[in-house]
Amino acid sequence: MEGYRVKEYRVPVKRYVRTLTLRDDSALIAEYRMRHSRGAIWQEILDGIKAVGILEMEIYIRGTLLIMILEAPADLDLDAAMERLATLPRQQEWEDYMAIFQQAGPGATSSDKWQPMERMFHLYD
Description:
Layout: E1 13-21, H1 26-35, H2 43-51, E2 56-62, E3 65-73, H3 78-85, H4 91-98, H5 110-113, E4 115-116
Antiparallel strand pairs: 1-3, 1-4, 2-3
């Protein structure tokens, strides 16, 4: 399972990379994976992500470490989008539910939990 297709967009995009750590419990991690699978994740969550302007969101896992990659239009104010996302239907309910799997407390928003990563290398032009 090497390599993943990347969507192409008609607008310039920015990529954001965030990280989060799960609780070190294999049963919880299995349940977390299942809750994010197609058909199990709440439709309101998917709708909310799209409604605030995020074009793509991927989450990768290795052990307890999660890496989230967001792609959004280059002119999107991601902080404002994440603040808006937290107010949409069922978003905080989802975040509180996911907190049982994550090293995060109830009441934390997505932007509280997911910490930005710093890009330290890329193929320079």
